[in-house]
Design brief:
There is one protein chain. By secondary structure, the protein is mainly α. It has a single domain, classed as Rna Polymerase Sigma Factor, Chain: A (Orthogonal Bundle), CATH 1.10.1740. Helix content is about 75%, strand content about 0%. It contains 4 helices and no strands. Helix 2 crosses helix 4.
Amino acid sequence: MKINKQQLFDIIIAKDQSGFEVFYDQYEILLYQTVRFQVTSAEEAERIITDALKAIWNDPTLLHTFQEPRLSLLLVKLIYSMLLKPLEKMS
């Protein structure tokens, strides 16, 4: 069974690194595919994913940014919002 939003929140609050690794193993393909279609290189995709995961680890309240009950869709929305931030700075 996949980790849900509340379980991930609890894992981060507890700073449970092994639980976070289980989460990552379950969602790494989704995260990579989401980012890879938006950037030009695999290295850039990996950097964005790392930045997103660090942001979530450091601020688990990000999981409540969107009123999305499904963790997979929440993660996609967070990734897209992070991808769009550099564009917002340019305008």
